[in-house]
Amino acid sequence: MNDYLSLLLGIASAGVGGELFVRGAVGLAHWARISPGIIGATVAAFATSSPELSVSVNSALVGSPKIALGDALGSNVVNIALILALALVISGIQSPRDSIKRDFPVALLVPVVTGVLFLDGILSSADGALMLSLFLAWLAAAVVEARKQRSSAENVLGVRHHWVALMSGVVGLVFLVAAGDLIVAGARGIAISFGIDEFIIGATIVAVGTSAPELATTVIAKLRGHDEVALGTILGSNIFNGLLIIGIAATIHPIVVSWREVTVTLVFGLLALAVSWPPRSGFIERRRGILLLALYAVYLASILQGQAA
User: Fold this and answer.
1) Were 51 and a residue from 81, 82, 151, 210 both cysteine, which residue would form a disulfide, CB within 3.0 to 4.6 Å?
2) pTM for this predicted structure
C-alpha cells in the first residue's frame, strides 16, 4: 500500500513542481534576456535530469552501473517517444532555429557515440571521460549562444521581480526532485512485488519514473504556450542523460554489457529522434506525436519480448 501511496504522491508533486518550475524558468529567461529555449535546454534539463543523476551515481558507487545505463538510455526513449509525443498530441511545436542547429544534432549523436563505444562490450573510464568532454563542448556552445542573446537585447523583458521567478523555480525544483524519487520508489516496489525482472524495471518503469519531472515540465510548458521550454527541456535532458550521466557512471565504475542488451534502446532512441526531426520550416506536426506513441508501444513490446526470450 505504501508503494501505491508513494506513486500517487509523486504524480501530485510532479504536477505542482512542473507548474512552479516552468513559471520560474520563463521568468528567469526574460530577466536574463535570453531565450526560454536555452533555459529549457540547460537549467531545466539539468534540474529534471536530477533523478537520473541520483540513480546513476548511487548505482555506480555500489558496483551496479548497468542500472544507470538502462535508466539513462530508457529515459531518452521515454523523453522523445512518450513525453515529446504527448506534447505534440496537444498541438504541434515550432522548433527554434538554434535548437535545430545545436541541440537536435547532438541529441542524435548521443546514441551513435554510445553504440560505437560499446562495440567492445565495455564502457571504460576513458570512454566516460570522452562523453563528459563532448557534453562540456555542447554546454559551452549553449553558453556562448546565451551570451550573444544577452548582449543583443536592449531591455529587460517580462517580470520585474526576478527573485520571485527564482523562488518559484527553486520550490518547483524541490517538488520535481521529490516527485522523481517517490515515483521511482513506488513503481519499483510495485514491480518487484509482481516479480518483474530488475532490468525491465530499469529500462521501463524506473525510466518512466525518473522522467516524471521532464513530463510535468514539458506538458505544463506546452499547455502554457512555452514551446521553447518544452522542446529545450526534452532535448537538453537527452543530452544530459546520454553524455553527462552515463559518462559519470562509467568514470566511477566501468560498465560491462553486451551489444545485444543495449541494441533495442539505442535503435529506438535513434528512430524516435529521426521521427521528431523538424522539417525546414521548423514546425513539428501533431501527427508526429501519434507516430511517436506508436513507436513507444513497439519499443515496450520489443524490450519485454527480448527479456522473455
Assistant:
1) 210
2) 0.77
C-alpha cell at 242: 546520454
Query: Which bin fits 155, alpha (ψ -120 to 50), beta or left (φ > 0)?
Result: beta
Topology annotation, domain 2-151+160-308? A middle domain of Talin 1 (1.20.1420)
Is there a contact between 210 and 59 (Cβ–Cβ < 8 Å)? Answer: no
Q: Report residue 40 as a C-alpha cell.
A: 529549457
Integer Cα distance of 142 and 20 in angstroms: 24
Q: What is the pLDDT of residue 273?
A: 93
Q: Residues 66-93: pLDDT tens digits?
A: 767 877 888 899 999 999 999 999 888 8
CA distances in angstroms from 153 to 34, 146, 147, listed in the order given = 8, 11, 10
CA distance 90 to 222: 8
Q: Going by C-beta distance under 8 Å and a sequence separation of 6 or more, which residues neighbour residue 167?
A: 24
Sign of CA dihedral 43, 49, 51, 57: negative
* Three-state secondary-structure class, residue 94: strand
The reported pLDDT for the residue numbered 236 is: 86
Rg (CA), the chain: 18
Q: Where are the beta strands (DSSP E) in 174-251?
A: none
d(CA 93, CA 121): 38
d(C-alpha 258, C-alpha 273), whole Å:
24
| Cα–Cα distance for residue pair 117/1, rounded to 1 Å | 42
Domain ranges of the chain: 2-151+160-308
* Start-to-end CA span in the chain (Å): 32
Other residues' Cβ atoms within 10 Å of the Cβ of residue 58: 13
* CB-based burial, 249-278: b 16+ in 10 Å, e otherwise: bbbbbbbeeeeebbebbbebbbbbbebbeb
